[in-house]
Specification:
By secondary structure, this protein is of the alpha+beta class. Helix content is about 35%, strand content about 20%. Strands 4-3-2-6-5-1-11-12 form an 8-stranded mixed sheet. Strands 7-8-9-10 form a 4-stranded antiparallel sheet. Strand 3, helix 5 and strand 4 form a beta-alpha-beta unit. It binds aspartic acid. Aspartic acid (ASP) binds next to strand 8.
Length: about 350
């Protein structure tokens, strides 16, 4: 009897604490798991057809279902993030994996990262050209190398060692992305245009996911083709832990989309977590501050969740493709400014 009591007390002290936020307490919401994903900051073009919009919604719903299934079955947040992002990478409508944007050479260079909020371990790959699912290789960097970021030919060699799925570079291409590239190329005759101008809707879009599992662990991941017509070798924020991806069980998980250079300059994802930690701000307050006070209008957006499973999205673009689900029954798909 005494042993049982001792065990109960010890066990209770190791169970992850997931205090509800003030808003949740008021609404009496408790969550065992939660997941949020994005398919890029930016709004659909004004001339998008209802069928095109529905295809985006269906893609977001399929990815959300993949991650939600993992979490509801008691799987880890890392598995949920990887499963979700793989679905989005394989969907030609999103700028990651198949459907990635073209760089200035008319090819594809893919970036991705993943972070484990329970250990602060992270892994990323930059500029990979033949890896079908860069998020999976990023996870292997985290678990198999002791490093955080592998780039270019080294990352490709590691992919060979790890035996992950490979495809020819041209198989990432879609006609839609080629048309966008040609349009952007025509408009970017000026040398510095990409750096100086605010984001255009067709230049942004990326995928990402943040999940909280039943054990209280947060994971975050991001995967992208980068920005249309980017210079050969350019690396954005998505493969960089602290810039485009961050996760810490003590605070939150974040995945970003937008002008990567801006998210790198401001260590945007980590800055949100640090504001929560050191100023005791809520995720909403911290994300609003970084997106609206530190970054420029139109730079992009983030999705995130805190350790109570409270989901937040903030964007200063005209819209963001995003979706969320949690153990209270939420299943929410949004595009544009909805
Ligand atoms: N952040 C990505 C990059 O700069 C692009 C995007 O989110 O659309 O590479």
């Amino acid at each position: 009897m005494r042993h049982t009591l001792l065990f109960t007390i010890l066990f209770a002290s190791f169970v992850p604490q997931m205090p509800a936020t003030a808003a949740d307490q008021k609404a009496n919401v408790t969550r065992k798991w939660a997941i949020v994903l994005h398919g890029g900051a930016g709004a659909p073009p004004a001339n998008a057809t209802p069928q095109q919009l529905q295809a985006r919604r269906d893609g977001l719903a399929a990815a959300l279902t993949a991650g939600r299934t993992v979490l509801a079955a008691g799987g880890s947040s890392l598995d949920a993030v990887e499963a979700t992002i793989r679905v989005l990478e394989d969907d030609p409508l999103f700028n990651a994996g198949h459907g990635a944007v073209f760089n200035s050479e008319g090819e594809h260079e893919l970036d991705a990262s993943i972070m484990d909020g329970s250990t602060l371990d992270g892994g990323g790959v930059a500029g990979v050209r033949t890896v079908k699912n860069p998020i999976t290789l990023a996870r292997r960097v985290m678990t198999e190398t002791g490093h955080v970021l592998l780039a270019g030919p080294g990352a490709e060699a590691f992919a060979t060692q790890q035996n992950v799925d490979r495809v020819p570079n041209a198989s990432f291409s879609t006609e839609l992305r080629r048309a966008e590239w040609e349009k952007v190329r025509a408009q970017e005759a000026a040398e510095n245009a990409l750096r100086q101008q605010p984001a255009k809707p067709w230049q942004i879009g990326t995928v990402g996911c943040v999940a909280l599992d039943k054990a209280g662990n947060i994971a975050a991941g991001t995967s992208t083709g980068g920005r249309t017509n980017k210079k050969f070798g350019r690396v954005g924020d998505s493969p960089i832990i602290s810039a485009g991806t961050y996760a810490d069980n003590a605070t939150c998980g974040i995945s970003a989309s937008g002008i990567g250079e801006q998210f790198i300059r401001h260590a945007a994802a980590a800055q949100i977590s640090l504001l929560m930690q050191h100023r005791e701000w809520s995720l909403q307050q911290a994300a609003d501050y970084v997106l609206k006070q530190r970054l420029r209008p139109g730079d992009g957006g983030i999705i995130g969740l805190d350790r109570s499973g409270m989901i937040v999205w903030v964007f200063t673009t005209p819209g963001m493709y995003r979706a969320a689900a949690d153990s209270s029954g939420r299943f929410d798909i949004r595009i544009g400014s909805e």
